[in-house]
Amino acid sequence: MRQTVEAYGALAIYLAVVLAITLTISVLAGRIGRRRPDPVKIEPYESGYPTPPLMGRFPVKFYVVAMLFVIFDVETVAFYPWAVQVRELGAYGLAVMGLFLAILAIGDAYVWKKGGFEWK
Predict the structure, then answer these.
(1) What's the number of domains the chain is made of?
(2) Where does the chain cross the membrane (predicted)?
(3) What are the two backbone dihedrals, phi and then psi, of residue 46, each rounded to the nearest 5 degrees?
(4) What is the pLDDT of residues 69-90, one digit of tens each?
(5) Domain range for residue 75?
(6) Helix, strand, or coil (residue 16)
């Protein structure tokens, strides 16, 4: 029990020092740093280039594509642990992954039918 307390005590000291350094640097940067607001500096930008003011709202299609991208990323990440353990999982693991792929294929077919993959 004593070893556990000592191990966590060292961790607590480390976290306290890291928090103190972080707060000190942040406060000093805010107090000492120069403040020269410039119209160009406060413009919204993306990837280092200023963006023009938006005329209206983003189309919903933008958000649909973003959500589809996230879903495909999650799909891809789900394959890595399965591929590492495929031999140990055997036929059951193969069946479960087949079911997973079937559900995803149904979802993909639905999105395709609704035109979610077409960019206009």
Answers:
(1) 1
(2) 12-32, 62-83, 89-112
(3) -140, 125
(4) 888 888 888 888 888 998 999 9
(5) 55-120
(6) helix
Residue 112 lies in a domain: yes
CA atoms within 13 Å, Cβ hemisphere of 88: 5
Q: Per the domain annotation, does 84 fall within a domain? A: yes
Determine the residue type at 80.
Y
Which residues 6+ apart lie within 8 Å of 86 measured at CB? 93, 94
- CATH number of the domain within which 85 lies: 1.20.58.1610
d(CA 57, CA 76): 31
Rounded CA gap, 29 and 45, in Å? 23
pLDDT digits (tens, 9 = 90+) for 5-63: 777 888 899 999 999 999 999 999 989 988 888 887 777 776 666 666 666 666 677 77
Residue 50 included in any domain: no
| DSSP string across 63-115 | HHHHHHHHHHHHHHHHHHHHHHHHHHHHHHHHHHHHHHHHHHHHHHHHHHHTT
Asked whether residue 43 is domain-assigned, the answer is: no
